[in-house]
Amino acid sequence: MRALVAALVLSFLSAPVDALEVFACEPEWGALVSELAGEQARVTVALTAFQDPHRLQARPSLIASTRRADLVICTGAELEVGWLPLLLRRSGNPNVRPGAAGYFLAADYVRKLEVPTRLDRSQGDIHPQGNPHVHLNPHNITRIARKLAQRLAELDPMNADVYEQRLDDFVERWHAAIVVWENRARRLEGLIIVPHHRSFTYLADWLGLDVIATVEAKPGIPPSGAHLSRLLEKLNVVAPAAVVRTPYANEKPTTWLAERLDTPVLVLPYTIGGHEDVTDLFTLFDTTLTLLENLQP
Ligand SMILES: [Zn+2]
User: Which is higher by pLDDT, 4 or 27?
Assistant: First the structure.
């Protein structure tokens, strides 16, 4: 932790005076900005891996950060609908208002999965625009990186060359990493998992994992006793390899279910900082694959 604080202070000190002030809602977007902007950006990240991105308090320090931001980068697709609009209103910063160049929503640039055919908020579904947890497919990261580099150049044209060069460098390293990950992924195809929330839909889609059920009855709705009993009955027949959750999810229902199924609970990192080995986007996928591989008999 001390090293991390030291590194943050150092990056602050070494950032040029004209560096962009960036406010990232989630750690994955803070990490992507750092890949593409390097010291040309001073990044503040609102959430840690141990906080639910669907829910956050719009506390004064976050309002202060958005007030001085040149760029706000978040997931969108209503992931932060419970707190970001309020934060932006309170900041009073016209440069990062929805529609402004300083407002960037990553999910706008990828194809969403699990888009409901019929919108019914009365049932409390917190994924009304489709699944917002888009960052766990590395191909989505590539698409978003390209759009983000363009946006950085638009906001800071003096350094447009820097962003273009860093994008090329990142994409080259990222594609090389994807080749390695997809080779490893062949062994994982068809692995049966039961996530707590639909946090790993894009990961499962990319790796060919079999999500046969979720612990929640609907996204954001805690499971009732009746739902858990039905789930138990169903899963006793198919035997999942693990019940999977994020570092921030309530551990009770996953533990309850895993104990009765005699199957492990697997906490996947989900984002930067969600596991001690996960310090950037590359180690996020490296570690996620390693943890899934370790499930194999
Ligand atoms: Zn969600």
Answer: 27
What is the fold, at CATH topology level, of the domain defined by 186-293? Rossmann fold (3.40.50)
Question: Quick check: helix, strand or coil at residue 130?
Answer: strand
Ligand 1 midpoint to CA 136 (Å): 13
The answer, yes or no, to whether residue 3 has pLDDT greater than 90, is: no
Global pTM? 0.93
Average per-residue pLDDT for the chain:
93
pLDDT at 125: 76
- pLDDT of 16 reads 79
Ligand 1 centre from 196 Cα, in Å?
Answer: 10
Which CATH class, in words, describes the domain spanning 2-178? alpha beta
Ligand 1 centroid to residue 160 C-alpha, Å: 34
Spell out the alpha helix ranges (H) of the chain: 2-14, 27-37, 60-67, 84-91, 138-155, 160-185, 201-207, 225-238, 251-261, 281-293
Query: What distance in angstroms lies between residue 133's CA and the mean position of ligand 1's atoms?
Result: 6
List the domain boundaries for the chain: 2-178, 186-293
CA 78 – ligand 1 centroid, Å: 9
CA of 242 to the centre of ligand 1 (A): 19
Distance from the alpha carbon of residue 278 to the mean position of ligand 1, in angstroms: 21
Q: Tell me if domain 2-178 and domain 186-293 are identical in fold.
A: yes
